[in-house]
């Protein structure tokens, strides 16, 4: 780590809070640094759609004072437009902050700007660039949030995931990403795509930063819980029905992560995907489509050609799903949740690929959500661990999944794995 | 029933649709009648905060053409302000319709206006009058919606329930009310108070009207399902821990309803409340408070004295609830849901009081939600059946509760009970 947290390539929540606590800098210094970095670099990256006015009221006492946060532009903010990445919401100004935004502000964080989202958090790509893999997609739908953290512009960012929209961009941009247990973070004031799937999530430079951020926003103990070592942990190497989608380098990354954990004392066991979970994954499309076609019915009906073609196709298809098919899919999802809980009777955590491979070249697609969407459906906590790469240096994220409600455990094990990866690569956290 | 549906004291969904189908009138006639009734009577009642512009595009073909709907002013509407009953939202204009509003419009219904809600659907009373019990509260928080149907202004209305805000005003205003299974009707675009409790609901003149309305909005089969008779039904007379709150006339109303069902061939069995359900009811306050303090954090922080005192007290208390206490309450709620499901292994439906008694005199309180809130927490479908009264003629609603997801069964049994009550009182539906 560089000596001063404001000189490091990325802004780390932990290092910033420590430096402020030690009076090596002020909260105002930290926020100004973030603003300078954005001013200097965002024309290259395109992570932000809007920046907040500089308000000088920086308390140094509050638990997140000095922490700059970029907020995906589907969360309401009272002081900036919330345009949902859609021409239908151009200039839209909510009156009050979304719950998560209000919680972050009340903890003293600075909402520094709104980040690029694909239209209504769907899959039509925008032109945000991937800071660590030029010429490759940063992933979506939380494209700008992941890019803003990866570029070192902000210490943290808010995103959302209905399929894989937090875990995939975190993987593609080589940063830590956290999709908490369903509804651990409130989604009030966040635009709905699918009410049984939409999950608010967080990005930060490292897993330890994520845990600290989540702890201080929610008031829940999510750090310092036996972070110690991997000794005695039982990790399931989850063999999914869709593993044939995997790029061979992702398969190798999972193998490498497993070996690191094993060397550190964990027991690795193979776990074949139960049928209920394969079927759960298959039900995702029906649930998402049915709910999106209702949640966005007025936008769909009145927006017409102004909506992106991929989004329109999802809504068109969703409008044809009958209640019977939806109810059947929800039954599948319920069984999948039960099956997911059972998995953790034999292992502490699962190790799974965050995406099918490295970020695809070009900006024509935000990538494939297949790998992450099962755990969105089941609601289990997932943490993307950065640090592994392809031979060409493209990021390959791997995820730690734990039992529903055991978010601290997912963060703790993911933190351990991140440190093992860094030690193996002969370098500490950057 | 009067010969022509537009001459009856109340507008009935079924009678209107039938008359349009039979070409005895047009959809335009039906909507104009509703507008005339509001113009003539709402200065007395105060059910509406805003009326829609008359748009002449009335299709007679659509499944709900001719049906006038009043919408609680916490549902977004693109063509009218959505002021949430709060000075904080004065003049607020959403860009798009809430999901339920869009669904109703897409089925051909006319959203005729926005109805009075208590502030942010909480409990500080407004001044809507009770059309059937002058000088008594219409209940809340869906005060205007219940009053608009009871006064005969509209064929139907939308409301929401976090404690008892659909079932109680329906009971107090002597109309039919439907709190469906949790999330049967989407809450997207409806202001959130408590995300695990908020439930969108419907009001209509009779239970049969409710079923028809709900069927045509959702595309689910909710009518014509063995409506036949009570023969062979097993109905649980639910003895709740809070029954000492009950007014003696409500206890008598429940007894009268039970006797009518029994005479029609149902078997009535006493059912003592399981401890898990009493504890579930007790957990409601913790869950509601914790979630409301987060969902409305920005309004709470910035609204200060502009918020009503009762709402502010709920938010102040909710802000002190720790995550541990909330998690404990959610575990109670989960156990209560399981216990509720078990109840229906021995009975088809429960018969419960909709409120603790008739509408209290005056407008200083919207009444007590204790009776209804348990079923909001468990998510079971509940239908308020009107028709019984105190000796002084004040309305006493009784509710039919069925298993989660069996909304058709709740509507069917409630419809049967309503007809028995009407037959007993020697009069058909008015």
TrEMBL record, chains A, B:
<dbReference type="Pfam" id="PF01425">
    <property type="entry name" value="Amidase"/>
</dbReference>
<dbReference type="InterPro" id="IPR023631">
    <property type="entry name" value="Amidase_dom"/>
</dbReference>
<dbReference type="InterPro" id="IPR036928">
    <property type="entry name" value="AS_sf"/>
</dbReference>
<keyword id="KW-0808">Transferase</keyword>
<feature type="domain" description="Amidase">
    <location>
        <begin position="30"/>
        <end position="408"/>
    </location>
</feature>
<comment type="similarity">
    <text>Belongs to the amidase family.</text>
</comment>
<protein>
    <submittedName>
        <fullName>Asp-tRNAAsn/Glu-tRNAGln amidotransferase A subunit</fullName>
    </submittedName>
</protein>
<feature type="region of interest" description="Disordered">
    <location>
        <begin position="123"/>
        <end position="143"/>
    </location>
</feature>
<dbReference type="GO" id="GO:0016740">
    <property type="term" value="F:transferase activity"/>
</dbReference>
<dbReference type="InterPro" id="IPR000120">
    <property type="entry name" value="Amidase"/>
</dbReference>
């Amino acid at each position: 780590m560089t000596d001063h947290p404001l000189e490091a390539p990325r802004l780390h929540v932990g290092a910033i809070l420590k430096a402020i606590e030690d009076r090596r800098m002020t909260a105002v210094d930290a926020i100004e640094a973030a603003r300078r970095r954005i001013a200097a670099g965002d024309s290259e990256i395109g992570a932000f759609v809007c920046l907040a006015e500089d308000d000088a009221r920086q308390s140094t006492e509050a638990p997140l004072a000095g922490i700059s946060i970029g907020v995906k532009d589907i969360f309401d903010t009272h002081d900036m437009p919330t345009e949902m990445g859609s021409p239908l919401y151009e200039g839209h100004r909510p009156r009050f902050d979304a719950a998560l935004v209000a919680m972050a502000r009340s903890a003293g964080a600075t909402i520094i700007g709104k980040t690029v989202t694909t239209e209504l958090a769907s899959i039509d790509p925008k032109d945000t660039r991937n800071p660590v893999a030029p010429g490759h997609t940063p992933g979506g739908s939380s494209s700008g949030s992941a890019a803003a953290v990866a570029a070192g512009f902000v210490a943290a960012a808010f995103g959302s995931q209905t399929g894989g929209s937090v875990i995939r961009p975190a993987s593609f941009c080589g940063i830590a990403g956290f999709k908490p247990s369903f509804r651990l973070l409130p989604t009030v004031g966040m635009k709905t795509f699918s009410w049984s799937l939409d999950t608010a999530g967080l990005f930060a430079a490292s897993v330890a930063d994520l845990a600290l951020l989540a702890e201080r926003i929610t008031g829940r103990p999510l750090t310092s819980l036996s972070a110690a070592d991997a000794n005695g942990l039982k990790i399931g190497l989850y063999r999914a029905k869709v593993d044939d989608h995997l790029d061979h380098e992702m398969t190798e990354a999972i193998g490498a992560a497993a070996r690191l954990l094993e060397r550190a004392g964990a027991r690795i066991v193979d776990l074949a995907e139960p049928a209920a979970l394969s079927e759960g994954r298959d039900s995702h499309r029906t649930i998402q489509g049915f709910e999106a076609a209702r949640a966005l019915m007025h936008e769909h009906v009145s927006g017409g050609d102004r909506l992106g073609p991929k989004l329109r196709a999802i809504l068109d298809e969703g409008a044809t799903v009958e209640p019977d098919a939806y109810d059947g899919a929800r039954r599948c999802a319920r069984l999948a949740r039960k099956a997911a809980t059972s998995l953790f009777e034999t292992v502490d955590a699962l190790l799974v690929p965050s995406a099918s491979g490295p970020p695809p070249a070009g900006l024509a697609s935000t990538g494939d959500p297949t790998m992450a969407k099962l755990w969105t459906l089941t609601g289990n906590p997932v943490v993307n661990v950065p640090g592994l790469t392809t031979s060409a240096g493209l990021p390959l994220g791997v995820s730690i999944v734990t039992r529903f409600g055991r978010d601290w455990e997912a963060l703790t094990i993911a933190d351990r794995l991140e440190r093992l990866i860094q030690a193996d690569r002969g370098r500490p956290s950057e």
